[in-house]
UniProtKB/TrEMBL annotation:
<keyword id="KW-0534">Nitrate assimilation</keyword>
<protein>
    <submittedName>
        <fullName>Nitrite reductase small subunit NirD</fullName>
    </submittedName>
</protein>
<dbReference type="Pfam" id="PF00355">
    <property type="entry name" value="Rieske"/>
</dbReference>
<dbReference type="InterPro" id="IPR012748">
    <property type="entry name" value="Rieske-like_NirD"/>
</dbReference>
<dbReference type="InterPro" id="IPR017941">
    <property type="entry name" value="Rieske_2Fe-2S"/>
</dbReference>
<keyword id="KW-0560">Oxidoreductase</keyword>
<keyword id="KW-0479">Metal-binding</keyword>
<keyword id="KW-0408">Iron</keyword>
<keyword id="KW-0001">2Fe-2S</keyword>
<dbReference type="InterPro" id="IPR036922">
    <property type="entry name" value="Rieske_2Fe-2S_sf"/>
</dbReference>
<feature type="domain" description="Rieske">
    <location>
        <begin position="11"/>
        <end position="106"/>
    </location>
</feature>
<keyword id="KW-0411">Iron-sulfur</keyword>
Length: 109
């Protein structure tokens, strides 16, 4: 069993209301931007902002359910795992995300 993440590893990135419903917000960083997505049910997910297919910006994709469709070639990426949906194969790096008191936090460690 994995130990829980140390709270010092969590970084506040925005308020949940700063992310449009069925949309995203980009967290810029040198190691690659992170797309933070909000579903219709206010679940929040974070993926590296690069489709595993041709590195398309997932943050510009269409969110439906708990999936984002890449704007370049319509690959469907599962927001909870980062895995491409069949028949496509590949994975976008996932970052742990949580909402506390209306604020979004990412674990970047």
């Amino acid at each position: 069993m994995n130990a829980p993440l140390n709270t010092e590893q969590w970084l506040r990135v925005c308020a949940v209301t700063d992310i449009p419903v069925l949309g995203s917000r980009v967290v810029e960083r040198d190691a690659g931007n992170i797309a933070v997505f909000r579903t219709a049910t206010d679940n929040v997910f974070a993926l590296l902002d690069r489709c595993p297919h041709k590195a398309g910006p997932l943050s510009q994709g269409i969110v439906h359910g708990e999936t984002v469709t890449c704007p370049l070639h319509s690959w469907n990426i599962d927001l909870s795992s980062g895995e491409a949906r069949a028949p496509d194969v590949g994975c976008a790096r996932r970052f742990p995300a949580k909402v506390e008191n209306g604020d979004v936090y990412l674990a970047l460690g």
